[in-house]
Fold this protein.
Amino acid sequence: MPTKERQIRLTMDELPKRWYNILPDLPEPLPPPLDPEEGPSRVENLPNLLIKTCLGQEFSTDSWVDIPEGLQDLYKQAGRPRPLFRAYGLEKALGTPARLYYKSEFYSPTGSHKVNTALAQAYYAREEGYERLATETGAGQWGTALAYAAALTGLKCTVYWVRAVYRWKSARLAFIKLLGADVHASPSMQTECGRRLCSVDPDHPGSLGIAISEGLEDAQNDPKAAYSLGSVLNHVLMHQTIIGLETQKQFEKAGDYPDLMISCLGGGSNFGGFVLPFIGDVLTKGKKTQFIAAQSQAAPNLQGEYKYDFADHAEITPLLKMYTLGHQTSMEPIKGDGLRYHGCSPILSLLRNKGYIDTVAYPQDEKHVFENTLRFIRSEGFLPAPESAYSVCCAVDEALKCKETGEEKVIAFNVSGHGFMDMEGYREVLGIEDASMETAEATA
Ligand SMILES: *Cc1c(COP(=O)(O)O)cnc(C)c1O
């Protein structure tokens, strides 16, 4: 019998002490990064850019990688382990026979799961003698997470933030500055690449591809600086398995096991972190769990082509074998901005290609996504990040299917972050502003 508890908690002693590396368990070897036919070798340049330990982990053949004690301590400082909730409120609101559980990455101090890899990368960078981290950010969650990790480990941090987003996310900008990082609207005057673009248009709106190029150029020109990436790469997904490993222990405690696991997917780090330990159970222990990645029709990269492509717009990275929409494809803006990326991580792409991962893409007006999420907000009381709303939306749809079939399916979904600093999305898409005005008038 599954437990009736509303919250399944782990003690601090139960914090996982190793990450799970799925590479050796994959059904076939992961295609390696490659160089394009023309230009300098991107693969050979990787050691000049990435933190050495992370680069080693990228190709590790060990199934388990120890989490250093100092880093376990930082995870605890960031509030780990995080609870798994049984969604009794949502079950009742939907009238579903399904058992719904959700993982609470929204308890992260910066508001997203991205601290799990930011802390690991900052920890290793400091160990290797670096003094500064350079990176890009689009939606802003990654920049905030890295600024936070740099602050806790005593490193400096430089963030290149896509100008179009930098302009309107003023609360998040203030937070990054409070954490002590240098933030530049990108393209900036700090780099050759930025200066070139600014000379043409001083008010250039920027793009994630341009911001990546600035971060890479910055790190390349300063031997004391390392470049950090917040998603897509193997080592990033491995750091994030802390989410799924905790969840596994929690299901064990609960006396239950998921039939279906759901999360949103941009580059794949929160989805991978949540499900990879369970996919390991499917690959090595004969479990039968289904996995669904929730995306936007603005960037349905899992429905793209499975081929070698660059990870960035400016073609600085090696070619990665992944599902991609094309590295220079333009994508419509959505409030779940963190899901707007052209490619899916190579590990998840391979698993998708072998039939282990299903996907759904929601209309880009985001109405269905936020309306479904409203049912969660009003029954569970947590405010998901706009990206996490896709995960919640998919869980609601699946739970409603169970209502029709009467199936007591166990559904687990990950809520990758909170939406306190991204309220505009809900406001605009659901027209909340008008509603609150009416109420204010009615009570006046
Ligand atoms: C960045 C982000 C995402 C999307 O990135 P993934 O690498 O696919 O996880 C999802 N949710 C939140 C809260 C994010 O900050």
The chain has a mean pLDDT of 94.
